[in-house]
Amino acid sequence: VFWSFLIARILIVVFWRASAFGGQDSHYAAFFMFFSTFQWVFYLGAYYVLEEELTGLVWSPNVMVQANDTDLALRETAMFKCINANGTLACRKQMHPAVVCKQLFDPALCSGFTWIGATGDFQKCCVKHFYSLKRPADIVGIPPITISMTTLSSILQWVAVLAMKWILESNPLLTGNPGGQFVAGASVDILDAVIFANYLLHNKVLYPKYGIDKNGGAALADDSSYNLLVLTWLLAITTSTLAPAVYTFFRGVDSDTPNKVRTFQGALGDLTQSMRMLQSGASHKLVDEAIKLQMEQYCQESGGHAEVHQVSVSAPEGADSDEESADIESSLSMKMKADLSSLTASSSVPESGAAKHMEGGMYQVIFDADGRKETVDITRMKPIIKRQAGPLAQGCCQGWCSGARSAHDSFDHFAEILDSIRSLFLLELPFFLWRYFFEIDSLAIDSWNVIVMGKNVVWGLHDLLVILTCNNPSATIFGYTPLATLSAMINGSAMSSVWVGPAGFFRIAADFTAVSVKRTMETNMKNLETHKAWLLIEREKLLHDGHAVGMDSVALFDAAIAKNGVNISDLQERIDMVHT
């Protein structure tokens, strides 16, 4: 196996360098992946098969007797009298000879018998064989040290995982474009499958296979549970190993071909990896890219200009009462000035309402209090963060089984759904059930098994959400986006607080390490940053709506964003003062 797979890899590299058969880099890379990883599946499988084949069955005859500990019999023994007179220390060598038969002889259940008792009161007592498994010699010599086979196999398992992980995530035939999150997820599944393989030597499945009951007694041989466990493991590790190779083969890309469509989730995963590797320059570039992609995703997943926003509308500012208002108005055309001067003045107390975009920086607002309509510019509006509708309001559950509405590569989109089906039904769910079967009697909250079972639960839930939403991260239930939130949590991102409101409103909140004295100001900071994010998204939609956009319209948004930025800076200074 080793030499055949090595020769295959050499031939693939030669064909790749010579561009033989007219294949693309991803085709050669897929075969290189297969011949670099699948050999480890054979090695691991061969080890566990050999270990099981070399396991032997040993037995010992046990006489089914026990001490006679009834109160009357106990008081008549020399042991009781010694303890009663001298204490336990003086009687530590005293024998307790009184025994009774625990199980009488039955030809159908016993291997033999012996007589127990005194003259005139004998009992024909059962002798049973008790069985156990004898593992092969566990010590191997690797000069100049001696190491146990168990330790050596554990080391080789980690070597196998690291070797497969390197080939999958850093394929030398597809440098710079290995497949991102899809391949990284398969690496995690391979690691889980390698760890899970230790259960193939567990007594809970080997005892029934060899005809031993849980107490060590004789039982009918039943290898069904062992065969089912082997099948589960083989399907899991085989499909986890093949999935990246199949995915890479059908991608149809070359090493110098950039990804067809870059997504926010992919950039976020690369950013997390870059930060863990302390790559400062690459991390800064990925931050800018992630923000840009997140902006695009928000715009594409929103309802466009037809979207209705719950807003709070403030009274129009006087032309002479505020220097900033004068600066804003000086940058507008005469037509815009006329439009602003014709707006109906409202009360000084902000009013809530539903706003819908009209043109430029102007919105039509239907106020909640009296239902009147008014044309309002963007500088007077703030998004309402608290959801006004209940969890069962219109639009609270949408986007399920409809596919992603963002600019997501169709091949990657479909591949991730198929891989989630594989992962859920061939790995996460069966692994969790098997681990529960093996560990339920000794499971502790601080054990390693809790961690790997937790992995199966979290990733299994993620796979289920991908299947149910058709890989649509904007799918909502009760106003929340479970797939997007769980994906961000799994990726180790601080963006797990992003969610979509019932009216398609996007809330972006940074994580703050708050203390009680700063809680109020930090809440205000979240509101200001949410306001700024909303303004940026609305401006972006305006710039990409396919129509000519006047400078006056953009100026309104720029002015509102600038004013919001000043408020954020002022509030941050106050927070810093509290901190000091």
Strand and helix layout:
Layout: H1 2-18, H2 25-53, E1 56-63, E2 65-67, H3 71-75, H4 78-86, E3 99-101, E4 112-118, E5 121-134, E6 139-142, E7 145-148, H5 149-169, H6 180-196, H7 203-209, H8 224-251, H9 264-276, H10 280-301, E8 308-313, H11 323-330, H12 334-341, E9 351-359, E10 362-367, E11 373-377, E12 381-383, H13 410-439, H14 448-469, H15 482-490, E13 499-500, E14 506-507, H16 519-543, H17 551-579
Antiparallel strand pairs: 1-5, 2-3, 4-5, 6-7, 8-9, 8-12, 9-10, 10-11, 13-14
Helix pairs in contact: 1-2, 2-5, 2-8, 5-6, 6-8, 6-13, 7-8, 8-13, 9-10, 10-16, 13-14, 14-15, 16-17
Structure report:
The chain is α+β, with helices and mostly antiparallel strands. 52% of the residues lie in helices and 13% in strands. It contains 17 helices and 14 strands. The strands form five sheets. It has a five-stranded antiparallel β-sheet. α2 packs antiparallel against α8, α10 crosses α16 and α16 packs antiparallel against α17. The longest helix has 30 residues.
User: Mean pLDDT, as a whole number?
Assistant: 75
Report the count of strand segments.
Answer: 14
Secondary structure tally, helices: 17
Rg over C-alpha atoms, rounded to the nearest angstrom: 36 Å
Structural class: alpha+beta
Descriptive key words:
580 residues, alpha+beta, 5-stranded antiparallel sheet, 3-stranded antiparallel sheet, 17 helices, 14 strands, 52% helix, 13% strand
